[in-house]
UniProtKB/TrEMBL annotation:
InterPro entries: MT_TRM10-typ, MT_TRM10-typ_sf, tRNA_m1G_MeTrfase_euk
Listed name of the protein: tRNA (guanine(9)-N1)-methyltransferase
Listed GO CC annotations: nucleus
Basic and acidic residues: compositionally biased ranges: 42-74
A biological process term (GO) from this entry: tRNA N1-guanine methylation
GO molecular-function terms, A-Z: tRNA (guanosine(9)-N1)-methyltransferase activity; tRNA binding
Residue ranges occupied by any SAM-dependent MTase TRM10-type domain in the UniProt entry: 82-274
Ranges of compositional bias, category Low complexity: 17-30
Keywords: Methyltransferase, S-adenosyl-L-methionine, Transferase
Enzyme Commission numbers on file: 2.1.1.221
Keyword GTP-binding in record: no
Length: 300
């Protein structure tokens, strides 16, 4: 039988599917004016939110850029310091820390700018300390005074628990003739180490930024050095610290009574990295002398 004949004999059942009848009364609902206003308001808010975040991001980056430039130039003001959550402040330690600013004529303008930034950091560290010192800045004059007056509209005059003298620290002995103060002038060049801080004593920090060019202030009565050599015997790099670093170490010692912890908390990590590099770079048996020793040998 032909295939065409078979195809003719095949019965195909078909099913007709009727389309659903459209609802006679169904009509598209129109949104109310109130809902349209709410939707438009949401869209505007989202658009403004994105724009606001974009502006904030740009402003934050610009602020960071300016702060980085000021930090590189040593021109950070108190207002430029990062805002930290103020910790709970306990009773004052009782001791006094004096920053001797009597080196003004020996510093360049750039060094004075760096020093003034260090003073701002010092005040900030004292303000946030668990047990605050009484701060006294002596010998404020010349370029340093002009720079401090130009920073934040002479904001240093509003520093709490701080005092400024144009006279030198020698005035300490004439404050009260009936009382003989115990004054300790800290230095980076001494064999005597400071072992503890006492609330009845006054500690003087040399306020100078000279990148190790100059000799420190001569002996007052005793010139102990912070005990870095005892607690960080492996740290062979230059141990001359900035004003604020020295002060922060004192603050941490008062809070913890632990010199080693204070040093590790304050001294920059790069100091330890530099020390490791120096050890690797210097061949065994090579004599290593400091800049101070070279200067002394040259003068001799």
């Amino acid at each position: 039988m032909d295939a065409d004949v078979e195809a003719d004999n095949v019965e195909v059942d078909t099913v007709e599917v009727e389309a659903p009848a459209a609802a006679e009364d169904a009509q598209p609902t129109q949104p109310s004016k109130k809902s349209l206003k709410k939707a438009a308001k949401r869209e505007r808010f989202q658009a403004q939110k994105l724009e606001r975040r974009a502006r904030e991001k740009v402003a934050k980056k610009e602020k960071q850029r300016i702060r980085a430039e000021k930090r590189a130039a040593g021109e950070l003001d108190e207002e430029d310091l990062p805002k930290k959550k103020k910790p709970r402040v306990g009773p004052p330690f009782g001791g006094r820390v004096v920053v001797d600013l009597g080196f003004d004529e020996k510093m360049t303008e750039k060094e004075v700018h760096s020093l003034c930034s260090q003073l701002a950091y010092t005040y900030s560290a004292n303000r946030n300390a668990g047990h605050q010192f009484s701060l006294l800045f002596t010998g404020l004059d010349g370029k340093t005074l002009a720079r401090m007056d130009s920073m934040s509209d002479a904001g240093y005059k509003r520093w709490a628990n701080s005092e400024f003298w144009t006279e030198g620290y020698e005035r300490l002995w004439s404050e009260d003739p009936t009382v003989k103060p115990t004054i300790v002038y800290l230095t980076a060049d001494s064999d005597e180490e400071l072992t503890e801080l006492k609330p009845e004593e006054t500690y003087i920090i040399g306020g100078i930024c000279d990148h190790n060019r100059l000799k420190r202030r001569p002996t007052v009565s005793a010139l102990p050095v912070l005990p870095i050599g005892t607690y960080l015997s492996d740290l062979k790099t230059r141990k001359v610290l900035t004003v604020n670093q020295t002060f922060e170490i004192l603050v941490h010692w008062v809070d913890t009574r632990d010199w080693e912890s204070a040093f590790h908390t304050v001294i920059p990590k790069r100091k330890f990295e530099e020390n490791s590099k120096e050890k690797a770079a210097v061949p065994e048996g090579t004599a290593v002398v400091s800049v101070e020793e070279v200067e002394e040998q040259t003068e001799a």
